[in-house]
Amino acid sequence: MLIRIVRMTFAPERVPEFLQLFEASENQIRSMPGCRFLELWQDADQPHVYCTHSHWDSADALNAYRRSALFGQVWPATKALFAAPPLTFSVTPATPDQQAADSVQ
């Protein structure tokens, strides 16, 4: 499983537009092959900063979504609302078994 976090800073006056865009597309994103989970977080101290938190079967599944027509519509519309560049990263769950295997290599 791949977990994807995207931290986005919006111009405060553009937040309603972003929320409308997210609401209109969230179920379509959740329906993409390989998407297991999607939620939206709002920063507790900076209300114009949001993060998407999503779970994907694999990097290939995430990349297939990133090549989709849906992403081609949603991401440019979202980027137009940014007040700063986004911060994106992918992580995988760390389990004791994985950590032990990694330390041997």
Automatic annotation (TrEMBL):
<dbReference type="Pfam" id="PF03992">
    <property type="entry name" value="ABM"/>
</dbReference>
<dbReference type="GO" id="GO:0004497">
    <property type="term" value="F:monooxygenase activity"/>
</dbReference>
<protein>
    <submittedName>
        <fullName>Quinol monooxygenase</fullName>
    </submittedName>
</protein>
<keyword id="KW-0503">Monooxygenase</keyword>
<dbReference type="InterPro" id="IPR011008">
    <property type="entry name" value="Dimeric_a/b-barrel"/>
</dbReference>
<dbReference type="InterPro" id="IPR007138">
    <property type="entry name" value="ABM_dom"/>
</dbReference>
<feature type="domain" description="ABM">
    <location>
        <begin position="2"/>
        <end position="92"/>
    </location>
</feature>
<keyword id="KW-0560">Oxidoreductase</keyword>
